[in-house]
UniProtKB/TrEMBL annotation:
Keyword Oxidoreductase: no
Domain ATP-grasp, chain residue ranges per copy: 122-318
Full protein name: Biotin carboxylase
Quaternary structure and partners: Acetyl-CoA carboxylase is a heterohexamer of biotin carboxyl carrier protein, biotin carboxylase and the two subunits of carboxyl transferase in a 2:2 complex.
Chemical reaction(s) catalysed: N(6)-biotinyl-L-lysyl-[protein] + hydrogencarbonate + ATP = N(6)-carboxybiotinyl-L-lysyl-[protein] + ADP + phosphate + H(+)
UniProt organism field: Rhodovarius crocodyli
Gene (UniProt): accC
SMART domains: Biotin_carb_C (SM00878)
Lineage of the species this protein comes from: Bacteria, Pseudomonadati, Pseudomonadota, Alphaproteobacteria, Acetobacterales
Length: 449
């Protein structure tokens, strides 16, 4: 099948740039879409063509499926890359794109739908032989059922939204007394955030690490994994710093997990990029969810494996074969990513506004994925991520030293950012030791919950 000539990028910010860069290197023309708030955004400036798709509110622009499809038709784009967030895990959108004769650069709609509901995702993984966090067999129908399951798996337990994402709709009950409240709050939050109050229960692990596996699959049953990312540094269940590989995983453990996952996805008939997320505790992996899209933290995998994951996504969507097998995937050194957001580094209050000066760090092993430029105004309407600073080093200590050095060089003047927090993390002996759990960062930033 021939490669695409023109791709529409249904996203904004750094990820729109990321996709544009892959397209340019492949000789593919790009179409940017943008809201009125983003008329002078970098992704619009760089793209070969651009179309305004609506007002600032995301539901009227970046989530407006009809406007995006019209933009593709007007410009003659043959494929749509959804990036992450927005419509990237919307199965209806993937279906609509294909119904209009365009290629969706992502998985098949039924797989997006299956993994979008965490209960059906866990069901599928159970059938495919992937280990799970112990919990309710499906949705919890009543508080009584929640009590029964909690008594069986033992407190502490976590009530989670079936449609959850971004750490919302998740509540811990440490004891039976806290269960009713957790049940009520999780359901209310889930209903408000996702329009769906279905919840399930998992054992709340007290000291896990978050370890996830990057996978690519083509349309011919070839599935390859690109190793793990350790995303244990989180605040409110949201990742702040990610690494490849994990400081605590051996090559043998990685291979074993990779084997389980690639076998499962082969059986499922999965296509394109995906990430399976696990909690790891006491040497055991337990699946929590699958993301059927490119992830924010994909660059750390690219740095250690030298693969361009977006290029691979585009090749797969155009019907090409992967053309290599697991033995061709090798890893060099260690990579770290810091998510730099437009937020106060202590209170995390949003800090949109004008960036007077932006200076990106450089040098050996440094990569900056950012849509910032001097004079740019960070709009208040969207995600607060303004830059991903990614470094690669021969080993973890070198990567940490390089990240600290790059953070010192970086200038984002005019708004508050989380650069000072990342500087403190890199300088911390516990972080440097590599011995921490998903709860470490919240204590570090002075939060107990
Ligand atoms: P979301 O889709 O909202 O991001 P996830 O299921 O991916 O939700 O979980 C996000 C984070 O919440 C995990 O990385 C982990 O830190 C924490 N978490 C999720 N499930 C559990 C669990 N059973 N025990 C302890 N922590 C958990």
């Amino acid at each position: 099948m021939a490669q695409f000539k023109k791709v529409l990028i249904a996203n904004r910010g750094e990820i729109a740039l990321r996709v544009h860069r892959a397209c340019q290197e492949m000789g593919i023309r790009t179409v940017a879409v943008h809201s009125t708030a983003d008329a002078s955004a970098m992704h619009v400036r760089l793209a070969d063509e651009s179309v305004c798709i609506g007002p600032p509110a995301a539901r009227d622009s970046y989530l407006n499926m009809a406007a995006i499809l019209s933009a593709a038709h007007i410009t003659g784009a043959e494929a749509i890359h959804p990036g992450y967030g927005f419509l990237s895990e919307n199965a209806d959108f993937a279906e609509m794109v294909e119904a209009h004769g365009l290629a969706f650069i992502g998985p098949r709609a039924p797989h997006i739908r299956m993994m979008g509901d965490k209960i059906s995702a866990k069901d599928a993984m159970r059938r495919l032989g992937v280990p799970l966090v112990p919990g309710s067999p499906g949705a919890l129908e009543s508080l009584e059922e929640a009590r029964e399951v909690a008594d069986r798996i033992m407190y502490p337990v976590l009530i989670k939204a079936a449609a959850g994402g971004g750490g919302r709709g998740m509540k811990v009950a440490h004891t039976a007394d806290e269960l009713e409240e957790a049940w009520r709050v999780a359901r209310t939050e889930a209903k408000a955030a996702f329009g769906n109050d279905a919840v399930y229960m998992e054992k709340y692990l007290d000291r896990p690490r978050h370890i996830e596996l990057q996978v690519l699959a083509d349309s011919y049953g070839n599935v390859v994994h690109f190793g793990e990312r350790d995303c244990s540094l989180q605040r409110r269940h949201q990742k702040l710093v990610e690494e490849a590989g994990s400081p605590i995983l051996s090559a043998a453990e990685r291979d074993a997990l990779g084997e389980t996952v690639t076998t499962a996805l082969k059986e499922l008939g999965y296509r394109n990029a995906g990430t399976l997320e696990f909690l790891w505790q006491d040497g055991q992996f337990a699946f929590i969810e699958m993301n059927t899209r490119l992830q924010v933290e994909h660059p750390v995998t690219e740095m250690v494996s030298s693969v361009d994951l977006v290029r691979e996504q585009i090749r797969i969507a155009a019907g090409e074969e992967l053309g290599y097998d697991q033995s061709a995937v090798t890893f060099t050194g260690h990579a770290i990513e810091c998510r730099i957001t437009a937020e106060d580094p202590e209170t995390f209050a949003p800090s949109p506004g004008r960036v007077n000066t932006f200076h990106a760090p450089g040098g050996l092993g440094v990569r900056v994925d950012s849509a910032l430029y001097s004079g740019y105004s960070v709009p208040p309407h969207y995600d607060s991520l303004v830059a991903k600073l990614v470094v690669h080093g021969a080993d973890r200590p070198q990567a940490i030293a390089r990240m600290a050095r790059a953070l010192n060089e970086m200038v984002v003047d005019g708004i508050r950012t989380t650069i000072p927090l990342h500087q403190r993390i890199m300088a911390d002996p516990e972080f440097q030791s590599g011995e921490y759990t998903i709860h470490w960062l919240e204590r570090f930033v002075g939060m107990t919950k």
